[in-house]
């Protein structure tokens, strides 16, 4: 796997790990990390040996968004992001990169501001018991928008609005995130988070890659539509896999009481 300055990529069996690696800066995203993320997601998504991607952070933070030191210190500020925002080409997250493989966010500590992109865009989120969530945008004179809009598809609107308006003056706990449905599992003690993420990823990796890719398209796409239209498009994704070798292999393996031998995702 490629070596990156601000990310750590590794593979454990069929699980690829994408790890934010600026622990001294609470994994804040500078320009260099942002560019690396655009390549790293695609590297793991295109690796035939990887079936599931786990996203986490080194140190005591998961991801804390844009590096305020960089933004405040070079005279460019938020203008550096104008073209990407206007064209809506945010290539640093899995959703905007259209990553076909399942993505699990293992939230190991603080998830703040732009770091909430990776929470909103993951297919499954689990959190260490000491993880916290906050959106400090308005506290530093910025508008809360894309991350919060993504979160509003996962949890009740009032909880998102509260986080957006209270800013850095309040943190949501992992337990509260679980109660709201933002995460599906709280891992305690926190030191077990990566072990729990690997175990979950291995369960997911046992399934048909092509069926999971089509499932992601159907379910994420449904969020953009009304119920009837979403079901019509979902039916197209369902039928689109018919005739694929996995369609025969799955029932045969079930009847023969063995692990299926899935075709790689292409």
TrEMBL record:
Gene Ontology MF terms in the entry: catalytic activity
InterPro entries per record: ClpP/crotonase-like_dom_sf, Enoyl-CoA_hydra/iso, Enoyl-CoA_hydra_C, Enoyl-CoA_Hydratase/Isomerase
Pfam family, one: ECH_1
Transmembrane regions: none
Family the entry assigns: Belongs to the enoyl-CoA hydratase/isomerase family.
PANTHER family noted in UniProt: ENOYL-COA HYDRATASE, POLYKETIDE BIOSYNTHESIS ENOYL-COA HYDRATASE PKSH-RELATED
Protein name listed in UniProt: Enoyl-CoA hydratase/carnithine racemase
Species assigned in the record: Trujillonella endophytica
